[in-house]
Amino acid sequence: MKPAGDRKGKYTYKDYLTWTGDGRWQLIDGIAYDMSPSASLEHQRVLRKMLVRLDLFLTGKNCVVFSAPFDVRLPEGDEEDEDVRTVVQPDILVVCDRSKLDKKGCRGAPDLIIEIVSHSSASMDYIKKLNLYERHGVKEYWIANPENRTVMVYRLNSEGEYGVPEICPDRGEIRSAVLEGFSVNLGEIFD
User: Boundaries of each Putative restriction endonuclease domain copy (predicted)?
Assistant: First the structure.
């Protein structure tokens, strides 16, 4: 079954778990978003390179890295899982508080999220998810754009807001504030 909508057009994680068939779905504030079509070749290439570097860096450390499809439930408070209205599948995520992990995925904000932009996901990644991740306290949010070969890095400030992003060009190096000692050369990611 795919989403058909109720009177309010809002869904919960309980509804989400019943959806079968083609495509992948995300819920943001109870609204269902179809994540099809599948990612492009360049998207997959950037994802793989970034994921491998993170995985190698995190070996033997407390933090762990995952890639989509992997459910991240973002409750607004202490509601039960079935009532959660936001479930996303970031391209890449890093979780350092392992108590957030369970058999279903992650409940609560990951420490680092990386989304890789495609034409179909641009407004979702640059606007909707930016606001969502800020609201839920994702400490660091990277938006990688393979087309213009840049990465925008948002970091939570002391007021719990994302300030002006750091924009890293295609040959630049990104240093993570969340993962001390982790850096990546974008030339190696985009080439």
Answer: 15-186
For the chain, the structural domain boundaries read 37-190
Nearest Cα to 68, choosing from 96, 97, 38, 41? 38
CATH number of 37-190: 3.90.1570.10
* Mean pLDDT taken over the chain: 91
Give ∠ CA 135-145-40 in degrees, rounded to 5: 110
pLDDT tens digit sequence for 77-124: 999 999 999 999 999 999 999 999 999 999 999 999 999 998 777 888
Could you report the per-residue pLDDT of 23-48, keeping only the tens digit for each?
788 999 999 988 877 778 888 999 99
Question: How far is CA 13 from its chain centroid?
Answer: 17
Answer yes or no: are the C-beta atoms of 57 and 76 closer than 8 Å. Answer: no
Separation of CA 57 from chain center: 19
Q: Is 57 in contact with 36 (CB distance < 8 Å)?
A: no
- Between CA 7 and CA 14 the distance in angstroms is 16
